[in-house]
Write a structure and sequence with these properties.
Blueprint: H1 6-9, E1 18-22, H2 27-35, E2 43-51, H3 72-75, E3 80-86, H4 93-102, E4 109-113, E5 117-119, H5 123-133, E6 139-142, E7 171-175, E8 178-182, E9 198-199, E10 207-211, H6 213-217, H7 230-241, E11 245-248, E12 254-256, H8 264-268
Parallel strand pairs: 1-2, 1-4, 2-3, 6-11
Antiparallel strand pairs: 4-10, 5-12, 6-10, 7-8, 9-11
InterPro entries: Glycosyltransferase
């Protein structure tokens, strides 16, 4: 059933039925998912690890578990499933995320997140309550995440932001093979609608939260190699035409480390899938 009040939803905060898909691994992303969850034992993470020779394997913790057993990859190692592939074979984010969704095992909720994302304290409780407040079985909460800078209190893990990013600024951009659609976000502001996420027309790959059936009913099209923007159009249109509704969350439960400002140099060292573009013609 759809929850209406807090008491109706309380059982959802204890059942072990929460799946999150990451198409690339960053240790601090997984650490924050588990360490800041209200109910970490009900969270399962599926990771598609795209590596090259010399990379650390993502299922190996930073420190040995006998030295620091409280790391997420030690304390919750049985709740992290990893599919490892050679980075040159990833042929873009769509193919990798297709494998990520293949790791879904029927959990009640499903979430997709970019790498380089840090979650807030009690994020799982917050996003569930937001999703259920829509009173919509087909609700999908999705947005382009706000930058991490000045967004999270490092001591408490709580969000310092009170704005809501909404996807309603889409236009055509000129590319080498012609124009293509690109989504954007309007300037962030304090939500004028309180108590519920806000309807919006589009879906974002960087963050998506829904009932688990969204992953099954709107699967990734694995035949979209070397495409960066196209996945959002494909999934957004297919989901909408079979009844799903897209919402901008009222409150952000995670923030993205973008390659701008103080994080530009660090993020600039990260490899990109288009470095292998010459291997795949067409």
């Amino acid at each position: 059933k759809t929850c209406v009040t807090w008491s109706d939803c309380r059982h959802l905060l204890t059942d072990p039925a929460f799946f999150g898909a990451l198409s690339q691994f960053q240790r601090y992303t997984v650490e924050s998912i588990f360490s800041r969850a209200k109910n970490p034992k009900r969270v399962r993470i599926g990771v598609v690890d795209q590596i090259i020779d010399g990379d650390d394997h993502c299922d190996v913790p930073i420190d040995p578990c006998d030295k620091d057993p409280y790391q997420a990859l030690c304390n919750y190692k049985d709740q992290v499933d990893v599919y490892q592939m050679e980075a040159p074979l990833a042929v873009g984010p769509v193919f990798a995320r297709h494998f990520g969704h293949r790791l879904y095992r029927g959990e009640y909720y499903a979430m997709q997140s970019d790498a380089h994302v840090t979650f807030t304290q009690n994020w799982d409780e917050d996003i569930i309550m937001q999703q259920e407040s829509t009173k919509d079985e087909m609700a999908v909460l999705s947005t382009y995440l706000t930058d991490i800078v000045d967004s999270i209190d490092e001591k408490t893990g709580k969000s310092l932001r009170f704005t809501r990013p909404i996807m309603c600024q889409t236009d055509y951009e000129q590319g080498q093979q012609g124009k293509y659609l690109r989504h954007g976000s309007q300037p962030e502001g304090i939500p004028s609608i309180h108590g519920s996420p806000q309807l919006q027309p589009y879906w974002a790959a960087g963050f998506s939260f829904s009932r688990g059936h969204f992953v099954v009913n709107v699967p990734y099209d694995l035949y979209q190699p070397m495409i960066f923007q196209g996945e959002e159009m494909s999934i957004g249109i297919r989901g909408f035409t079979i009844g799903y509704d897209y919402f901008a969350p009222e409150r952000s439960v995670c923030f993205h480390t973008y390659a701008v400002g103080p994080n530009a140099a660090k993020r600039g060292q990260v490899k990109h899938f288009w470095e292998n573009g010459a291997r795949y013609k067409g």
